[in-house]
Amino acid sequence: MEKFRGVDYYGIEELLTEEERMVRDAIRDWVEAEFLPLVAQHHREGTFPTHLIPKLGELGVFGATLKGYGCAGLNNVAYGLITQELERGDSGLRSCASVQSSLVMYPIYTYGSEAQKEKWLPRLQRGEAVGCFGLTEPDHGSDPGSMKTRALKKGDSYVLNGTKLWITNGSIADVAVVWAKGDDGEIGGYLVETGTPGFSTLDIHGKFSMRASITSELSFQDCRIPLENKFPTVTGLRGPLGCLSQARYGIAWGAIGAAMACYDWALQYAQTRVQFGKPIAQFQLVQRKLVWMLTEITKAQLLALQLGRLKDQGTARAQQISMAKMNNVWMALETARMARDVMGAAGIVDEHPVIRHMLNLETVNTYEGTHDIHTLIVGRDITGLSAFGD
Fold first, then answer.
1. 368 is annotated as an active-site residue
2. Sign (positive/negative) of CA torsion 137, 234, 323, 67?
3. What is the pTM of this model?
4. Per the residue annotation, which of 85, 87, 137, 368 is the catalytic one?
């Protein structure tokens, strides 16, 4: 199959600034040259190419919208385009960058002390250090307020006990941003460094989705950390939920990249696959599938672009981010399934990327808030009535 040609049916390219296009093209070229040749093998083996993490740092991917500490200071649209191109490679690649940027660097930058920022942000930006985000627990996913992990103050330390599950980058992280309830029952954020006694990780195997990604369990057993490792300026769920809004924004763009990859591959396949004496792209039902994919991708591109502009204006609301995450991931998953269908038996082998994207998107559809949860968030926003029971 030939090189990716891009998907821009509505001339959205013209709505981007020159800097935004340059950033996108740089990441697109890097993904083509450095990542795509490796990803199928890593997917087979259930591994992640960790040697590429410093290269992502060199490209300015980590903490791209932050200012200072070596960060690129890009606008939100440029960052969205970065995540789009990373996920066009693989959801695991985008997930690694999303966690580092939105779930580790963002809370340190927003809630952390100056000492915490100076210690971690430059290293994380360069990819010299890796971070992970510990919120979800074995029994508490969509309801993080019921978390059981505790951080109790004892003398000059906090002592953590509990378990976090489904943690991207967990076993390769140098620092974990962990959310736990304190003595007063309030949720706080804590920085736990690798090697701290009582802190251990265990990788999750047997995944059929996000195989080219490291997913771990974090365990804390009388894990003692200094008092200065707590975020000083945030309490309650607004801390972790603020981080999740940043990550969901990147996912809304990233899912478009996965969909673009699937559509482009299915289109080229349909144009060259001959049945009954003509390419299958000439058949009405195949054309209907291709048109549906392109139409939904175009709608998602416009949704994400306007969200990015709102975010750059400082007016984007969490509920708008929920709508974009909900819609764009659904669109991408349906596109991947439809592309797999167009390709027939060829669609299930990893010689082609479609089945890999399809499997990955099953996870993306669930994490950072399920489709149903985001539906209820938007529903509460437009009706004023909560379906969560609160």
1. yes
2. negative
3. 0.95
4. 368
